[in-house]
Amino acid sequence: MARSKSSSRWLQEHFSDPYVKKAQAEGWRSRAVFKLDELIERDRLLKPGMLVVDLGAAPGGWSQMVRERLGDRGRIIALDILPMQGIGGVDFILGDFRENEVLTRLQQVLDGSRVDLVLSDMAPNMSGVGAVDQDRSMVLAELAADFAENHLLAGGSFLTKLFQGQGFDDYIRRLRNHYASVSIRKPKASRARSNEVYALATGRKS
Question: How far is residue 157's CA from residue 191's CA, in Å, rounded to a whole number?
């Protein structure tokens, strides 16, 4: 089947992207690692011994980056609806985060431990209908926020991908009710034409 003009343009843009080339050259699983890398450096997100949960982890770039940064001093639990090739030192759960059964499995793996940092790069499969895609993305963001509020230790941090649009401002207000500081970040590796940003909430309130 012939590719559409839009998909052909995307492929051309993707494979000429300097971050894609850099990821391939350095052995990273995705260009998204450079978004996280910038935020780790800027906001000092990681400390030895942390327990980190990575939601929407596949293909595993963020877990790969966190594992390298923490070395053997820390624990990472990753979750995604898509399969992910194993990473040494990363516990992976395959399942849909929207399902209670999958959330229960994640809670069982945590076994009562409080989390230092929750990362969420979750995004829905895009339909191309703006309002529908925004609603779906906000549902995932709300679920990630619920998880973080229920499982972070006091003072913990939450980093989540958001798309600016309906529900965005209310979501940021919600975060400000639960965290000491909330910042909006647009990493250099985020495509300029995308309305994607990251909300970083630090200092989870007791």
Answer: 25
Residue 62 in contact with residue 119, Cβ under 8 Å?
Answer: yes
Query: What amino acid is encoded at 18 in this protein?
Result: P
In 3D space, the residue among 106, 103, 177 whose CA is nearest the CA of residue 143 turns out to be 103
Rounded Cα distance, 54 and 39, in Å: 15
Q: Which amino acid does the sequence have at 203?
A: G
Catalytic residue, candidates 21, 22, 47, 161? 161
Residue 157 has φ and ψ, to the nearest 5°, of -125, 155
pTM of the model: 0.90
**What is the per-residue pLDDT across 86-128, written as a single tens digit (0 to 9) for each?**
999 999 999 999 999 999 999 999 999 999 999 999 988 888 8
Overall size of the chain counted in residues: 206
Query: For this structure, is 161 an active site residue?
Result: yes
Rg for the chain (alpha carbons), in Å? 17
Which of 11, 141, 4, 113 lies closest to 53, judged by CA? 113
Output the CA–CA distances (angstroms, integers) from residue 145 to 61, 103, 171, 193, in the order listed: 21, 13, 9, 26
